[in-house]
Amino acid sequence: MQQYQNPILYADYSDPDVIRVGEDYYMVSSSFTYLPGVPLLHSKDLVHWELINHCVSSLPFEKYDFPSHGSGTWASSIRYHEGTFFVFIPLVDEGILVARSRDPYGEFELNLLCKSKGWIDPCPFWDEDGKAYMVFAYAKSRCGMKHRLSMVEIDPNCRGLLSEPKLIFDGEQIAPTTEGPKMYKKNGYYYILMPSGGVEDGWQSCLRSRSVYGPYEYKIVMHQGNSAVNGPHQGGWVTSSDGRDWFIHFQDVIELGRIVHLQPMCFADGWPFIGQDQNGDGIGEPVESWYMPEEDMPSYAIAQSDDFEEKHLGLQWQWQANPNSAYYSLTDRPGYLRLFCWKNPERENYLWYAPNVLTQIPQKKELTMTVKMELTGKEAGDFGGIGVEGHIYGYAGLYSTGEKMEIRCYRGIVTEKMFHGEAEERLVFSSKLEGNVLWLSMSLSHDKTYKFSYSTDGVHFTQIQEKFPLSRATWTGAKLCLWSCSKENKNSEGYCDYEYVTIV
Description:
Elements: E1 3-5, E2 17-21, E3 24-28, E4 37-43, E5 49-56, E6 77-81, E7 84-91, E8 95-101, E9 109-115, E10 119-126, E11 132-138, H1 140-143, E12 148-154, E13 166-170, E14 182-186, E15 189-196, E16 203-209, E17 217-222, E18 235-239, E19 245-252, E20 258-268, E21 271-274, E22 289-291, E23 318-319, E24 328-329, E25 337-340, E26 358-360, E27 367-376, E28 382-389, E29 392-400, E30 405-416, E31 422-433, E32 437-444, E33 449-455, E34 462-463, E35 468-469, E36 479-486, E37 495-503
Antiparallel strand pairs: 1-22, 2-3, 3-4, 4-5, 6-7, 7-8, 8-9, 10-11, 11-12, 12-13, 14-15, 15-16, 16-17, 18-19, 19-20, 20-21, 23-26, 24-25, 25-37, 26-36, 27-32, 27-37, 28-29, 28-36, 29-30, 30-31, 32-33, 33-34, 33-35
């Protein structure tokens, strides 16, 4: 039998939840302030995944027109009920958003289930009697409460609440930082799978009860043990077409975010058992490899490179705030992505503050991103380039002085990581350049550092000596990015054309 290796995705698809519909598997993940948001992935075997959609094209709140680091779409859940895909999305400051569609490849309709502050990680559940419920957790940063789970009855069509929430679990002593609940029912038991202990060092817990409101029994069902996987954490249970059970979850690897693992799962004495007991303590531990859930299925992969030949941006791209068609064009110069030299009307035009930064999730630990670009500067300060975003970040590109072109490289440090945040930037390299066409490359190495290099012919590259440490962003891993702007914050008609992006 064929085997797979963990992680199945070395990429920041954090807080995964998964379902099976017929012969197809679907997974959603968090995306926070990066939009379109809540990526929707598809697989035939639970191992190879393709990105097929986003459940949220933009967020209906003005604050998301600019970066709001740490806000946005937190841990979502996906369910399929009576022919409709439902995705429950917590906006930690606004309430619970429901996205629904009968077609996972089509547009999702949005409605606000309830206004709330600090309700997170919601999961719906439809019982056999037709009643529907939502289990959820709390964010201490927003409501002063954590470690607890509550249950509330909801409209079966997910349009509103039908009761007041009832506390069903307090994990402060035995399961601190309990969050991310996912609810199921099997053999007369209600099960709630939930992570505890924090993302870097926690474990996977389970509650069970004969009654939806409890009381619930508690058990640890997976932990790190002797494995190399720290904090095996939040995820979802799915049953394959042959009746075997599986659990998808994340591991926090810091700089590159929360990567995705797949574990075998079974039941013992009426409790889920996840992974394999490798140290004899009776608790499951993550496996390095296992037998494939399905064999001889399509080997999907998530797109990275882009030649900009399509009429729409590839699904791998997300803006750092709500999308705005004024930021770019794919038609002004067919076959090119045109990013306009946008000013930031709110504050200094730093990468951390800019809504018009086009980002992408890195899909591996080592990579090289190369672009061919052409800057048409209309004002002094017009800029176009590439970068890597995080709490320590770097970017490089072409800068117009108004009379000539320069290759410039900047280093940024984020000093206030939440919401609009605070950052500092400084110029670390500049050099005069003939012409306005540039090949620009960024190479990420195994030692978690990266450097930029540039070329005027696409063959001979000059390396910029400044070395940058790979650094996480707020609740996410580092992001690859493209950015064109007015560095001097002027109104400009300048733009940068990107012919292609290759990532290998």
